[in-house]
Amino acid sequence: MKYLRYLFLALAIWGSIHPMFYFMRWILANDWDWGGMIDAWYVNDSATGLTWDLTISAIALTLWILIDSARRRDALGLVCIPLTFGIGLSCGLPLYIFLRSRPSKAA
Q1: Which residue numbers in the chain have pLDDT < 70?
Q2: Which of 14, 29, 37, 102 fits a 20 to 30 Å CA distance from 72?
């Protein structure tokens, strides 16, 4: 289980770097035009479907984090919510699984 846990950490790191590479290329090429980026998310039905798929998945993850963190009384996982919406689901989800799978402090 230990190695699987670190696989999720590696996915979180990859999920934060790889998508940001493309976002930053687009932002720099388009003079920080955030409105244009958002417009690009809805440029056709395929992009719109993917945008909604990721949005709904991010909302589901957020609800899971909120409920699970309250139930477990472990606020550390809450850091994954802004990372999910600021970087992406590819960072927030594997990071939350990594954090949630850490060994219990109970004896």
Answers
A1: 105-107
A2: 14
- Do the Cβ atoms of 15 and 86 come closer than 8 Å? no
* 73-80 CB contacts, 8 Å cutoff, 24+ apart: none
Residue 17 within a domain: yes
66 vs 63: CA distance, rounded Å: 5
**Helix ranges restricted to H, the chain:** 2-29, 34-40, 45-72, 80-86, 89-100
Dist. CA 42–CA 22, nearest whole Å: 17
Q: What is the domain count for the chain?
A: 1
pTM of the model: 0.89
